[in-house]
Amino acid sequence: MAPLTGSLAHLSAEENERRMLAGELYHAFTPRLTQERYRCRRALEKFNSLKDPSRRETVAAWREYTRSPVHTSHEEEESLQLPRSSHRIQHQAVYETEKANVVRLTKDERPLPPQLADPQADEDQFHATDAWVENRVHCDYGFNIHIAPGAYCNMDCTYTMPIRIGARTLIGPSCHFYSGTHPLDPAIRNGIQGPESGAPIAIGEDCWICGNVTDVPPFTLVAGNPARVIRKIESEWDPESAAYKKTGEPVMGPEDAMAKVAEKEEV
To answer: Residue 90 and residue 25: Cα distance in Å, rounded?
Structure first.
């Protein structure tokens, strides 16, 4: 690996990763982060190869692929197809797997609930505890993805920066989330030897994203290419609505709102 350049070249691995997660300038091609991307690639191969998985199998796979801070042995490096001696010499404390045949993706170490005999009842156990993530996921590290329970992420989505997705949010297929940027000065940018950054991405609760939309205000309908504001969404969940301001809280839950819609359709 070519030597890193610039004022960040001598950061510790821990500080470099902290800067990455905080959206500050960092080096992506350090031994530790390079091996993290190799690890994630192998984990994604397993997750994305699931064929018609049950809800339990999907949740288990998403939870299973987590990382552990251990030293990487020669045998583990061979199994994971990672760069060997040069990376180990430069930095021994790499994050890798506890066993050579297990690769992990996120940081969720919760045990699964006991399996129920009724398949539907077993599936229902995960509605309040887990997101629903379809396979063919694409990401660099995995551990910087946080998806709240009740959220749904459709197939072929890409996450390259730290991202948090709120509860009950719906993500359409082939959505891509990235905020990476590089210094404009080529002398500083310096290919893979220079620094880069990527601001964390935050998506709130109860959003619906079809694709290629950025920085949308709450309770706003946005569409088009390029995206533009279509209209304000009238909702009693909106803190700016008259009903919310009157009571200080939403006047309807999801079931009440759906019943109200159904009543209008019947008229």
So the answer is: 21
3-state secondary structure of 207: coil
Identify the helix (H) or strand (E) that includes residue 198. Answer: strand 197-198
Catalytic annotation present for 182: yes
The SS3 assignment for 196 reads: strand
Q: What is the pLDDT, as a whole number, of residue 66?
A: 42
Q: Which residue has the higher pLDDT, 144 or 75?
A: 144
Let me know: does 80 contact 42? Beta carbons within 8 Å.
Answer: yes
Q: Are 103 and 43 in contact (CB under 8 A)?
A: yes
Could you tell me the end-to-end alpha-carbon distance of the chain, in angstroms, rounded to an integer?
A: 69
pLDDT digits (tens, 9 = 90+) for 83-103: 333 333 333 333 333 333 334
| Cβ burial, residue 52 (10 Å; 0-12/13-18/19+) | exposed
DSSP string, 102-165: ----S---PPPPPPPSSHHHHHHTTTTT--EE-S--EES-STTEEE-TT-EE-SS-EE-S-EEE
**CA–CA gap between residue 159 and residue 98 (Å, rounded):** 25
User: ∠35-38-41 over CA atoms, to 5°?
Assistant: 150
Q: Residue 116: is its pLDDT beyond 50?
A: yes
- In the set 27, 127, 146, 182, the catalytic residue is 182
- What is the overall mean pLDDT for the chain? 75
Q: What is the mean pLDDT of residues 170-183?
A: 90
Entry pTM: 0.70
Tokens of 94: 């790499």
CB 23 within 8 A of CB 197: yes
Q: Is the pLDDT of residue 27 over 90?
A: yes
Token pair for residue 53?
Answer: 């998985």
